[in-house]
Design brief:
Structural class of chain A: alpha/beta
Shape of chain A: globular
Helix content of chain A: 40-55%
Largest interface: A-B, 50 and 50 residues
CATH topology of the largest domain in chain A: Nucleotidyltransferase, domain 5
Strand content of chain A: 15-25%
Order of helices and strands of chain A: EEEHEEEHEHEEEHHHHEHHEH
CATH architecture of the largest domain in chain A: 2-Layer Sandwich
Largest sheet of chain A: 5 strands, mixed
Oligomer: homodimer
CATH superfamily of the largest domain in chain A: ATPase, nucleotide binding domain
Number of helices of chain A: 10
CATH class of the largest domain in chain A: Alpha Beta
Number of domains of chain A: 2
Chain lengths: ~325, ~325
């Protein structure tokens, strides 16, 4: 028997069949292209149908499905809010998937919940009951595991770490994405660099050669490596924000581990010792010394592993009821 | 039958016998005076012995004991760390109490855990599964309830909200107590005012009449009422910090309620609408609009109610095992 984990991202869909032990049997990646709204729903249900039909032998027959979505999964309604998929404001994903999955149980959760579930199943949070996955990509979110369970909050919106207030006073730029995300996400790194370039008219470094609107965090990391002073200022400020965020998560949650992932970690993994140094200044003195700060073990696969684990957990709870 | 709730504070001990329905049958307050170390332990065990012996009729016989301590209660060892009680670095409170309680079950938890438990039993968090008690007194701590259970963390230190990093850059003053506590606790209000008085040599208002080291938050609130400009600056900055803290707790935990208590709330309860306005700027936009921000219903009794509820919960779990 097998488990199907599906990770819907803003630009692509990953599907993986797992053994119960967490080994990947097969994996497919499909780019969303210009699909939006119900076309994305149809892509998912079509893929599920194909996989269910193709699994011929008993060995790889799908017994449960887990789906990770880039946004909020409302547990009571089965609907999904995904800001980067046009038309997915309150999308009835669970209902649609159930039409093709039949008797096979389906569970949907947010990408950040799936990241920490993935790490706790097959990554760096194995054997942790209290651990946090801090996902720093285009945006910022945290998958928070508390006493062995993912923290949901009263309306499934817990873990919105990008909205952390970390610097006074409030600035209008924070309105759409939050203070932490504005300053220290992938998009934030580019924005902060753009703003610095504007006020540093005398600067003549390598970032000057890039059209301001086209600067990405990757340009900044590469300029950092050649000692560019704008890039140094931006990254050093990010390290301060990342360290403060770690401190706040540790002071509030007292977790065993903080796991950094997402597209930025990636290139920023080398700064983990600096982030730790910054966090040590700010956090509750006992718990900040005890916490382990690590990179994701699963990288870009954390979501699909987490989706697989959703499936396994659903299957276990169904079987316990029998 | 009755439950015994004991709330140990930094300066006094409160003991209350409760019915299972949460009505107080009797209540005693004893000031610690100059007691320290094992004298405080003896005071507690002595009081317990007296109460157990005096409860004659079946009606008020104590069936379980809960104790709230001003610090950390280590669940695995039964030991207690309480920074304001001299010699209570790793104090074997559970062991000592068990020597007088005999067969009666005893549970110890931190004051912040007890505050939210008290509110959830008999105060403003009744029927909440996700709620936070933000205690702003001499120091700052948060009792955090997640899906109906108090958040402990991996080593019982969760909820150290006074250590939240809310303003860059780091200042040496934050080393002993954390950024949020330095700026917006009762002691912090006095410290920040003292620092402002130092740099405002031309100021000639009412705070000038108080010896700088003797200024308390109560002086600041009273000066605020007469429009004193230093007091206005200090309180307005506190409102900003309190709002940012609410925003961070709401973005991370998505609770139904944030309940403000502790000695400062009290006089600062009238600022809750301002705190809400500030929080609305910073927090995750959906959850910050949904959260209710309220004052404690139990005030100074939150801890002793929480201790009573600890006893009730312990009794229920013991009875379920029978």
């Amino acid at each position: 028997m097998a488990l199907l984990g599906i990770d819907l991202g803003g630009t692509k869909l990953a599907l993986a069949a797992f053994t119960e032990e967490g080994k990947i049997i097969r994996k497919d990646i499909i780019h969303l292209g210009d699909r939006s709204g119900s076309e994305v729903g149809k892509l998912i249900t079509g893929q599920i149908r194909t996989i269910l039909n193709s699994a011929g032998s008993k060995l790889d027959r799908i017994k449960a499905i887990g789906i990770s979505v880039p946004g909020i999964s409302y547990q009571k309604t089965g609907k999904v809010w995904a800001p980067n998929i046009q038309g997915w404001n309150d999308y009835p994903l669970l209902e649609e998937v159930k039409q093709v999955s039949g008797e096979i149980p389906v569970t949907i959760d947010s990408d950040r919940a799936c990241y920490i579930l993935g790490e706790s199943w097959q990554g760096n949070a194995r054997e942790c009951k209290d651990a946090i996955f801090l996902a720093i990509g285009t945006g910022i979110g945290a998958g928070i595991m508390v006493n062995g369970e993912v923290l949901r909050g009263s309306n499934d919106i817990a873990g919105a770490a990008g909205w952390m207030a970390l610097d006074r006073p409030f600035r209008d730029e924070y309105t759409d994405c939050g203070c932490f995300e504005y300053n220290a996400s992938g998009e934030g790194i580019a924005k902060v660099a753009g703003a610095l370039l504007k006020v540093n008219q005398n600067y003549d470094g390598e970032l000057k050669k890039i059209v301001p609107d086209k600067i990405t965090s990757h340009n900044i990391f590469s300029a950092y490596d050649s000692g560019d002073r704008i890039a140094l200022a931006v990254i050093n400020q990010c390290i301060e924000y990342w360290g403060m965020a770690v401190a706040n998560l540790v002071s509030l949650f007292n977790p065993e581990k903080i796991i950094f992932g997402g597209g930025v970690f990636g290139p920023a993994v080398r700064f983990l010792p600096d982030i730790r140094r910054e966090a040590l200044k700010w956090g509750q003195p006992i718990s900040i010394k005890q916490v382990s700060i690590e990179a994701s073990a699963l990288g870009g696969d954390a979501g699909v592993y987490g989706a697989g684990y959703l499936a396994l957990k659903e299957l276990s709870s169904v079987n316990n009821l029998l």
